[in-house]
Write a structure and sequence with these properties.
Length: 372
Amino acid sequence: MNDPTTVSNTRLMRLVEGAAAVAGQTDLTSVLYTTIETAIDLTGARFGALGVVDEDGKLMEFLHRGMSSDQADEIGHPPEGLGLLGTITKRGETLRLPDLSEHPDSVGFPANHPPMRSFLGVPIRLGTEIFGNLYLTDKEDGFTREDEELVAGLAVVAGAAINTARLQRRLRRLAVVEDRERIARDLHDAIIQDLFAVGLSLQATTQKVVTDEVHSVITDTVQRLDDAISSLRRFIFDLRPPIWSQRDLREEVSELIGHLTEPYNAQTEVVFEGKLDKLTPNIVDDALQLISEALSNALRHAGSELVLVEVGQDRDELMVVVTDHGTGFELDEPTTGMGLENIRARAQRAGGEATITTSPGSGTTVRIRLPL
């Protein structure tokens, strides 16, 4: 080994550069993938992954690098956070092993999984709360103490970057809500009041009209103004519903899925996780619209016998995942009629994001995050 100080300084500079790349991302998914890639580059690991956990410590999302999509498809279902992966969450401590199979909590690998020996797992925190864990495996000659310290430093930066990305989402969401509030207020204070005043004026005019024909026309006009005011009030209610107007997301999603799937032969399963209560009408509306678009796409275009819809609440986010096992497609090629950009744009307008994973023959997964 060369001069330890020189090596450490060089790697420290790489950590600084990698941390800057992580902190420079503006959306949460980019932060997570950049964190994995930076950790692989820093340590020389062959594989890297980041598992996002829910409030109960259960693995709810698993992102990885170093393994091809074909390899991942052969393995099948992603890890569930059991065994060694769950141990890091429970303990909240870094774990470095020369051979992960020798650890008492190791449960082995599923079929078609590539062999892995050396292991480094580091928790990523948001304050005192564990957001997820960064996993690195299969470094030749094993991970060192220096690797551990560098990745621990990266995890601190990643935690801050994740917190910032979430805050930006909340601010975007707040801006949307405030805009809706402003529109609702303007409709009520200006347009409805003006229409109401015109209606009163016309009603007063009828007292001075002597012909039945003119009286009938004015009366009909007043009625139309009343109908317009009622429609606007319903619109305002949708923009700014009262606090007591709670929605049942489980019931509405189940009803929506039943309606959408009726004309098709495909089977659709829905899985709900988390509390999913006390959700605002806005978030329920956004979720229903996005589920409708993603599920409709799968039913119309995928040719899959089964479509899975998963809806879950994780701290301050609502997660929606729609998965089919159909034909898939090339993301880079035009997808006219599938509305993928509509899904992304609608999620962004709601302050969240939508990511789409697919390839020919391997089905499609639409993953949506919406801030609560």
